[in-house]
Amino acid sequence: MKYRILFTLTLIISFLTELVMAQPALPASPSQAPIDGGLGLLAAAGGAYAIKKLRDKKKKQDEGLDL
User: Is 0.85 topped by the overall pTM?
Assistant: First the structure.
């Protein structure tokens, strides 16, 4: 009886150590890169900068006509 319990515990421990030492699988590569976060903020900042430049240009042209 002792031998059977000892053998069973040895098997369980050996299987558990194999599970602990196993390497995880490689992550699946995404099919497309997500466009969010920093890239969205960069696009919004670029649009705001372009609008500011256009307004400044129009304002400068309007000031030149008033003289």
Answer: no
